[in-house]
Each structure stands twice: as structure tokens, then as C-alpha cells.
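seq:
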Amino acid sequence: MTEDDAIVYVIDDDEAIREALNGLLRSVGLKMLGFSAPREFLAYHRADTPSCLVLDVRLPGASGLEFQRELANARERIPIIFITGHGDIPMSVRAMKAGAVEFLTKPFRDQDLLDAIQSALTRDRAWREQERSLADLRGRLDLLTERERQVMAILVQGQLNKQIGAVLGTTESTVKAHRAQIMRKMQATTLADLIRMAHRLQFGEEEAA
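struct:
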């Protein structure tokens, strides 16, 4: 399966709705997998490919909004589009505040749903690209020795080689050598590049915590 083989997951207990959505999505070249309940969706081993979830608000047992919260608590990242025949403004506000891409009330226009799905898939592709880029940066960071990490931590704060040497109890020439290795291993062409990388690494670690 390639990166462009996007999948639209649909959770709706109405089989007729699932079949109708499957026909609509197939007509525009999108693959759909349908489930009648959240448990079925969770039990399915999802492919590592761009995807989104079309989720009915009213389901047997837990509501779609409760399932949205469950996915967020489990750190399951997937863009969600809500569909419902019984929506109201407070419900839609709650869903959107929790990160939903769209909240559509039945009957909705096919194009509105297709537009929401394309927006959700675009969002998921962007997130996946960010994750790949961050993983690459983490791989470069792993190449640094402990001392190089110490030098980098001070370097990105704007300290000069002489100042770094004083903090670490080493010579300016040794710091200079470490700095050259850091720039090479991190594939940074300028100090500004290295600072941006350090910021991304710090932000990424906090995001994953």
C-alpha cells in the first residue's frame, strides 16, 4: 500500500448509510471501510496510510462524541468528520473544539462530505509528513555523543565557543571541534538551522509526552 492509498473509515450502525457512502466514495476513487460500532473499528488493524474517520454521533452504547474523547485519550490520531441526523449547535461546538474537521447534519450534500474528507486527508498527510521529518531529526540527534549533546544544548542558547568551554571545563578549540561534528551530524548549514532543529526536537518531545 502506497502513501497515496488513502482510506476513509466509516462508523455508522445503519448499513444502508454505510453502503450509500461506500458508493459515493468509490465514485471519486476513494477506498472506504465501514464498521457498525466503535469496537469493530478498534479491533481492526489499520494500515499505516493517510486516513480519516466519518463518525455517526448517535451509536449503540457510547456516543460518537464519547468515542472521539476515547481516541484522544488513547492518543489515536485520526481526523474525524461527524455526521448526524440529530445534531444541535452545542453538540457541534463540542465536537469542533475537540478537533473534529467537520460536523454535518443529515441530509447533507454529497459534495460537502467529499470536501470535508479531502480536508481531513490533507490534514492527516501533513501530520504524517511532520512525524517523518521529526523522526529523521531524532535519528540525527542519536548520532551525537553525550559531550556533543552538551555542547549543542548550550550552543543553541547563543553562547560562543569560549563561553561553552568555560561552562564545560574544556578548551575553546575542543568546543570548536565538537561544534563542527554537531553541524555535520545534524546536517545543519548554519547556527540558525541548528536552533530551529533544536526547537523542533523540544516541541516534538513535549507533544509526544
